[in-house]
From TrEMBL:
Keywords: Membrane, Transmembrane, Transmembrane helix. The keyword Transmembrane applies. It comes from Lepeophtheirus salmonis (Salmon louse). The chain crosses the membrane at residues 12-33. This is Uncharacterized protein.
């Protein structure tokens, strides 16, 4: 549906902003960054797959 098409790019556009704000709020410890890398990897893979289909 057209509504889905507009929602997905928007959330995909806003996610970097959310990530950067979280990075600035969360203390930069290597352990947390490692966890975040894994989480973000999963999120971006899921988002990428959704956009492809």
């Amino acid at each position: 549906t057209p509504s889905d098409a507009t929602i997905k790019p928007t959330s995909f556009t806003f996610s970097p902003i959310i990530i950067f704000s979280l990075y600035s709020v969360i203390p930069c410890s290597k352990h947390l960054l490692k966890i975040w890398s894994l989480i973000l990897n999963q999120v971006f893979q899921l988002t990428h797959n959704e956009i492809k289909t």
